[in-house]
Amino acid sequence: MLGVGVVTLGLYAVFACVRPVPAPRITLDPALAPAASRPHLAWPARGQAALAAAGYGVLAVHGKQTPTPTASIAKVITALCVLAKDPLGPGQHGPTYTITTADANAYHTEAAHGDSVAAVTAGEHLSEYQALQALLVPSADNVADSLARWVFGSLPGYRRYATRFLLAHGLAHTRIGPDASGLDPHTTSTADDLAKLALIATGNRVLMQIAGQHSVDLPVAGRVTNWNTDLGTAGITGLKTGNNTVDTGAFLFTSTVSDGTRTLPVAGVILDAPSLPDALHAATRLVRSLHVGFRQVTIPARRRVGTLTTTRGQPVPITTTEPITLLRWQAAPVTMTVRSIPGRTRGDAGTLQVSAGPQMRETDLEPLRVMPGPSLWWRLTHP
């Protein structure tokens, strides 16, 4: 029996020496993550509005989100659909279209009604790029419908394509009316849908390049200017103004926020303002408040961020090895987690991951002193 006991103790000692020990426990400092807070946003006094950011989606809305006429903001949908069907890369001009007698007659009719137009004449040639310029810069209603007919065969054909496009992008509250210009009030949407639409537009370099042009030169119309007089003000980079008999002032705008190394597209919209100048003025105030609502989260290198409790119960402070900087919407929570590394050495405490909205940064962690491994006595006395 004594021999069996000796063998058993020997086997146990071998097992205790080679068995894996529980991983150390890491506790992060709860004060490390800044608390979420509601930003103060300069909403317009009238109508509805919304703000959005890439990766976040819609950040905030104002007013009842009831479908309302988009007016010429609809031309952004037209442009996106044209570029989806006939894509252009930077520097490309695409196919050339010939202005027909019907196109020229439509121009004269709409000009007589006081609509927003670009002069054309039968036999004139416009490239796809030039047609998009006429669509987005002087907001030419006549070119919107002509371009839709050229690319989609007819206005009903465009309407079917645009409806599928909107549904595919989750814009369920947007409806396309009988034209491609938005002049007809049956093209309707909500502010939150349109803010999402603007984010989609920021992903198309050709569209954003055109929308950021203060003026363009067209073959017959000559030099025409952009209705978006906010370009370059308060960091506004685009996108499209609008007004008709129902929605007297609308503006879909884009901008960016940056932490110095990365840039995040942001967007917003004003609908139902008393006039287009009122919408443009309200947008500058709103986008400035949007910029202030983004805050930089910084954790410097060598910052103590928590404690590692060793297998033996000994607390060891842990610090970051590299700095972390990210930009977050201040209403979004900051999440901090530690990812363990298989085969971790005594001088390695894992990786800290910091997330806010779509952004995630990480840095390795290290203990302030070498973590001692479990002693033989500890192994033997902790089965």
Features:
383 residues, alpha+beta, Beta-lactamase, 2 domains, 5-stranded antiparallel sheet, elongated
Total individual domains: 2
Spatial separation of the terminal alpha carbons: 23 Å
- Specify the CATH class of the largest domain: Alpha Beta
Spatial arrangement of strands, main beta sheet: 1-14-15-19-18-17
Domain Peptidase S11 D-alanyl-D-alanine carboxypeptidase A N-terminal: 58-274
InterPro entries: Beta-lactam/transpept-like, Peptidase_S11_N
GO biological process, one term: proteolysis
GO molecular function: serine-type D-Ala-D-Ala carboxypeptidase activity
Q: What is this structure's SSE topology?
A:
Elements (H helix, E strand, L loop, with lengths): L1 H17 L6 E4 L19 E6 L3 E6 L5 E2 L4 H12 L10 E3 L2 H12 L12 E3 H9 L4 H12 L2 H14 L19 E2 L1 H12 L2 H7 L3 E4 L3 E4 L12 E5 L7 E9 L4 E9 L4 H17 L1 E6 L4 E6 L5 E6 L3 E6 L5 E5 L11 E6 L2 E9 L8 H6 L2
Antiparallel strand pairs: 1-14, 2-3, 2-12, 4-7, 5-6, 8-9, 10-11, 11-12, 13-16, 14-15, 15-19, 17-18, 18-19
Helix pairs in contact: 2-5, 3-5, 4-5, 5-6
GO molecular function: serine-type D-Ala-D-Ala carboxypeptidase activity
Organism: Flexivirga caeni
Protein name: Peptidase S11 D-alanyl-D-alanine carboxypeptidase A N-terminal domain-containing protein
